[in-house]
Amino acid sequence: KAGVTQTPRYLIKTRGQQVTLSCSPISGHRSVSWYQQTPGQGLQFLFEYFSETQRNKGNFPGRFSGRQFSNSRSEMNVSTLELGDSALYLCASSFGTGSLNTEAFFGQGTRLTVV
Amino acid sequence: KNEVEQSPQNLTAQEGEFITINCSYSVGISALHWLQQHPGGGIVSLFMLSSGKKKHGRLIATINIQEKHSSLHITASHPRDSAVYICAVSTSYDKVIFGPGTSLSVIP
After folding, report:
1. Cβ-based contacts of B84 with chain A (< 8 Å)
2. pLDDT tens string A60-75
3. A98 vs B30: CA distance, rounded Å
């Protein structure tokens, strides 16, 4: 059974640009959650999607958005990148809904560097 | 005061030692997770707890809902256990809060 796949693994962008990150969940999983990890703030919850609907959102500005497709794959978009957006972005998939209310499986993450 | 706290922040142990990492939280929760993160970033979910105790190999996790406290124990520690261990809670109002992590180094 394939695990959670995040692409790309590494990304370098310039301030002001936008970026799209992708997460393919484990087959059969309908929930995808996104997290940001920085040295200063640690891990923080971004949002959760279940069956193409955003169920929950963390305290991030509107520049951070996401969506989920009918095959449960999810994308996360960050517009007008700032230096502080440099982070490891992780996604997790689970069968049931509710952010980390059920067993979750994490991807390897996308490391975004904004210069 | 952070809603999820962990202790210790850093831990160095000799191979074979018994290790305990603690997590305390101040919010109502529906579940608590122990996560392991190796250098390179990937996270593995070790346990999900809502009550009692779970064991997997050399790892044991316990939770006391009344005291809002959980512990992760590693028996017969090994250098491959070296990682950051993160406690995460799913709150009663469906938010996820992570602890700051405990960096463990097991020396041969």
Report:
1. none
2. 999 999 999 999 999 9
3. 10
